[in-house]
Structure formats: structure tokens, C-alpha cells
Backbone:
């Protein structure tokens, strides 16, 4: 079992920033329609991403592509310090119109020992700057501008140096049923404050409510 996570951007920004400090609880398997970028600053973390386990150390950049099921395992392995960026799907599509055709893969130290490339160093620097801005810049306007500068730097680096054609079988978009569930959840999220019925939702996603298990699943298990 895994859960759907709704990602909301921070006020004044098109993405969400999460700063991890100290030991934190394990995060169970889940997925979201957002690109997740984790930068390990200190400590270690153990991930499972689309069924594959990997161990992350300081300096590693973990990219979790949109709609990929993932988890962060045992609590003692949680990083002592890390920054997480969550970039909502709709905003990404605005910045990268053919976003669905790509996936991002950033090598981590345990997979590719040796000095990091210039592109990886630049990516690490931009992510570290986001952490330092979030914790050290108190002027709200300057903080927002710094974050916008850095997030566009991160996106440019990812597209230029770490993008590859998306032929993955592990994303929700490549499975018709799960892709339809993603559409159902998006519709429910956008109309959460309105009265909803199964026939109305089914009509919006072009599906018969009686024969569309994704609608029932979204009502019962996704939030």
C-alpha cells in the first residue's frame, strides 16, 4: 500500500521547501505529482525509489521523478541535515512544456565514486544556497528573489546535464489505470471545497463511476 501526497507551494513561491534537521521519523511509501529534489548536507539517509534501495551521503542529490513511489527508511539513517524541494507538476509543465518526455537522473557518490562534475558542483551549490537563504535571510522579498534565482538555476542544470528520455515503466503516467487515478486525485484536490458526487467526478475524467475503480480508490485511500 502507498499513499498519495498533495503538494502545496509555499506562500509567494512556485514550489515547497522542507528543511530537515536532526533525527526524523521514517517516511512510508507514497507518491505525488511533484518533482522532489533532496540534497543531503550532513548525515546519511536510506531511500527506496520505485522498488530500488539506495544509500545517500553528504553531497548527494536525490531526484525523485514525478509520480514515482518512494520512501525513506529506518529512522537512524535519516539525515542530520537536508533540504527537500517539491516542484508541483503544473508549474513544471509551464516551465518545461515537454516535461512529460523527460526524467532526471543525478548520480550519487556511492554509484559514481570520484570527484563530482562541474555541473553537479553547480547543482549542489544552488541547493545549498536555498538552504542558507531559508535559514539566514530574514528579508522576505530578498529571500523570495534568492529562492526564485536558485530554483531556475536548478531546473536549468537538470535539463542541461541530467535529463534523459522518459522510458520508465515505474511512473504512474505509463500505466493507464494509475494515470487515470492521478487525474481523479487532481480533480478532487482542485474541487475539495465543492459538493462532489461519483457521477460528476466520473464525467470529468471520462469514466463510468460503476466501472472505474480509480475513483473508489481515490475516495478511500488517497489524501
Residues:
Amino acid at each position: 500500500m502507498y499513499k498519495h501526497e498533495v503538494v502545496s507551494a509555499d506562500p509567494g513561491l512556485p514550489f515547497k521547501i522542507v528543511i530537515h534537521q536532526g533525527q526524523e521519523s521514517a517516511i512510508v511509501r507514497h507518491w505525488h505529482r511533484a518533482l522532489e529534489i533532496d540534497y543531503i548536507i550532513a548525515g546519511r539517509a536510506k531511500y527506496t525509489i520505485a522498488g530500488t534501495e539506495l544509500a545517500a551521503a553528504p553531497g548527494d542529490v536525490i531526484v525523485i521523478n514525478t509520480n514515482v513511489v518512494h520512501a525513506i527508511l529506518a529512522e537512524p539513517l535519516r539525515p542530520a541535515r537536508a533540504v527537500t524541494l517539491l516542484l508541483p507538476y503544473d508549474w513544471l509543465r509551464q516551465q518545461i512544456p515537454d516535461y512529460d518526455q523527460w526524467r532526471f537522473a543525478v548520480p550519487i557518490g556511492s554509484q559514481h565514486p570520484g570527484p563530482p562534475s562541474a555541473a553537479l558542483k553547480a547543482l549542489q551549490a544552488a541547493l545549498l544556497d536555498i538552504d542558507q537563504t531559508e535559514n539566514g535571510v530574514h528579508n522576505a522579498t530578498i529571500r523570495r528573489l534568492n529562492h526564485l534565482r536558485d530554483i531556475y538555476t536548478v531546473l536549468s542544470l537538470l535539463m542541461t546535464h541530467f535529463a534523459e528520455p522518459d522510458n520508465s515503466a515505474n511512473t504512474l503516467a505509463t500505466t493507464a489505470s494509475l494515470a487515470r487515478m492521478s487525474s481523479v486525485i487532481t480533480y478532487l484536490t482542485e474541487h475539495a471545497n465543492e459538493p462532489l458526487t461519483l457521477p460528476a467526478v466520473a464525467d470529468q475524467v471520462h469514466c463510468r463511476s460503476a466501472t472505474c475503480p480509480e475513483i473508489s480508490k481515490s475516495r478511500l485511500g488517497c489524501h
Q: What stands out?
A: Helices lie at 89-95, 118-136, 140-161, 176-190, 198-204, 213-221. Confidence is low (pLDDT under 50) at residues 169-175, 214-223. Residues 140-161 form the longest helix (22 residues). The first strand starts at residue 3 and ends at 4.
